[in-house]
## 1
Amino acid sequence: MKRTITYFVLTCLWLLLCLPGLPQTERKIDKVVIDPGHGGKDPGAVGKISYEKNIVLDIALRTGRLITDSYHGEVKVIYTRSTDEFIELYKRAQIANESGADLFISIHCNANPSSLPSGMETFVMGLHKSQDNLEVAKSENAAIFYEEDYKQQYEGFDPNSDEDYIILSLFQSSNLEQSIHLSSRVQDYFRESTGRKDRGVKQAGFWVLYKTTMPGILIEAGFLSNPEEEKYLNSEKGKNTIAESIFNAFSDYKSDFEKVNLSVEPLVKKELPVEVKKDERVVSFRVQFASYKKEKSPEFRKFKGIPDISVYEHDGHYKYTAGNEPTPEAANSLKAGLIDLGYRDAFVVAFVDDVRVEMGEALEILAMQNGKN
Ligand SMILES: [Zn+2]
């Protein structure tokens, strides 16, 4: 019996290595969703002279206009709202997912019980490292309390439960690296252009980021609870500078991602730190256990017991994977566990920087990197 299994595993591995190369996906960023937080009956944070919903809508529209004008229609901008209307959180993610966008940018403003905190921060999906970060996610997710049937729509998620944020963060986006790349750029430009406090790139469980399937960030553009910053956020100069910063970050991200020289010049030319690059490509192995024609967003708590679930799209199918292992061996033993759980057709797939590649290519990169160490 053992022998049969060994032969079976070897045959599987051999088949995997011989699979024809996956088609080279054209790396293009030509559709972006801009999501101004709150709206309508939900004002968001309330300052002394303004509502968050109005400021973020204004900044969102300015950012979108810069993108549309600069790329002459080459990049499509989709807004989750372009007027003062209430849009449910789940609908925002739905709009992004159904549009097949390459990027999701959510724009918000912060508030704090104290009037002292100031500055800008950008979030990506993940587990919060501090209570402050958790509080930001809690207050943004609280938008769902404005919805009548939020208990059905959010799969039992309770924005006030600390435990739910830990569960939420287990479903970490497979686009984390890209999201961090973009958010670092946003913070770079914020720091350089606005001269305001750079609070950095952070992680927390925001429902919209959890539900969107493309790289996504959530910008907190400043504190309405700080009177001086509220004035800045309401000024022409403030709103323009913030929009230009987001645009420049988008522009950098687009050209970094597409690896071409674009004719678009940044609006604000700044010398940003250039990192020295060694081969830092992240090679990982995951176990593919399910594939659906229709997107079945990794339903909250549904795949219980399966670690590190992520999803990628290929040939019109949404493929679900488990684990994120540094070696094929580790992925193989995970596969055995999944087969035990009843996913008989589970098999190992390779990723480089979160992009599905041939097993051979991944092994080659891995061998090269190990050779250098
Ligand atoms: Zn907000």
Note: The pocket of zinc ion is lined by residues 37-38, 44, 52, 108, 140 (CB under 6 Å).
## 2
Amino acid sequence: MDILEGIRERKSIRGFKPDPIPKEILQKVLELGIRSPSAENGQPWEITVVIGKALDEIRRLNIQKLNAREPFNPEVHMHLHAGVYKERHMKLAAQLYGHMGIDRKDKEKRTAWVQRGFRFYDAPAAIILTASNSLDESPTQFDHGCLTQTICMAALGYGLGTCIAGQGVLFPEVARQVCKIPDSQRIVMSIAIGYPDPDFPANRLQSTRESLEDITTWLGFD
Ligand SMILES: Cc1cc2nc3c(=O)[nH]c(=O)nc-3n(C[C@H](O)[C@H](O)[C@H](O)COP(=O)(O)O)c2cc1C
């Protein structure tokens, strides 16, 4: 796949076929993923790939905590939640509900949708990214952002879909316990990964962007 085509085509996938991903393919995706740039080539990342019973256990415990309304406890800053950023989030949610045929007043269906997020959208695999607690959060998160996008792009090249999944690690103690992630590591992000279900309505969503004109200043081009 051409690189420009790949960038244009990538989008979050929130419905997956149950088909397992061969380990060799996941290895190839991650081999490419770790070609990502990082500050001073520090490569401040460690990766856990989880499938099968362990992933099902994470899903189960995430839902248990969600249903019990336990407070979220992310180990990095995740949400913007104000002003125009909140408005963009609301627009995305409305578009997703529109595709899924979920009425905003239908609390039951909305809850079911949120639960899907905490189940990694039922993907056959999840990738959990961690970093040493000895590192400052913000440069590490920047490098993890690069890694995350490269993993998503590499996955696309192998016919896989991804959804970066903050929800998956809003109860980080769950993944920590199931995956035996040591306390010396901070859980940064997770990625749901699998073969996209082409019939899943939310997968048809092409999320919008503000216009380049509105966010770019060009100097010295006259
Ligand atoms: C740090 C980060 C966390 C995210 N967490 C979630 C999540 O928990 N659930 C979800 O459905 N999408 C999540 N996403 C995906 C975004 O909603 C998505 O990237 C955005 O709406 C743009 O859509 P696109 O990826 O289809 O281009 C996350 C993305 C990022 C970068």
Note: The chain has one domain: 3-203.
